Amino acid sequence: MTTFDEATTAAIAAFAQLDFYTAVQAMRAEADYDRERDQWISRYIDEHGGGADDAAYDALHAQAQATPEYAQFVDAVRREILEYFVAPEQFVLAVVGVSRRMLSDRQG
After folding, report:
1. Residue range 40-68: average pLDDT?
2. Of 25, 32, 77, 85, which sits with the fewest C-beta atoms within 10 Å of its C-beta?
């Protein structure tokens, strides 16, 4: 059995309470963030040599996430998601997965 920390357990319970439309919006927002994040990091890696091997690629991946530009990107995504979800509680529920991933991204 997989165990989750308190925040993840609470997020799953909150997500389960969403109506179908809001749940779909939340999943779409997370998918959009994932796609945008992957594209941003891929562009960074391509612009900085492409990572000739796995170690170089991993180093560039971590370097990309440590840049001020990446932090600005993450902040812009948060603002876009907030604009997309009109009710603050929808925003909070929608970014459960996204915010945990963003925090992980910033910590490398």
Report:
1. 87
2. 32
Tell me the C-alpha to C-alpha distance, in Å, between residue 6 and each of 61, 65, 66, 91: 29, 26, 27, 19
Rounded CA gap, 75 and 96, in Å? 15
User: Rounded distance, CA 101 to CA 103, Å?
Assistant: 5
Q: In the prediction, which pLDDT does 69 show? A: 94
DSSP class of residue 11 equals H
The torsion angles phi and psi of 2, rounded to 5 degrees, stand at -80, 135
Angle at 91 between CA 88 and CA 96, to 5 degrees: 135
Structure letter (DSSP) for residue 5: -
**Which pLDDT value is given to residue 103?**
46
Q: How many CB atoms lie within 10 A of CB 64?
A: 21
- The pTM for the full model equals 0.65
Query: What tokens were used for 33?
Result: 């963030």
**Length in residues, the chain:** 108
Burial 22-35 (b: 16+ CB within 10 A, else e): beebbeebbeebee
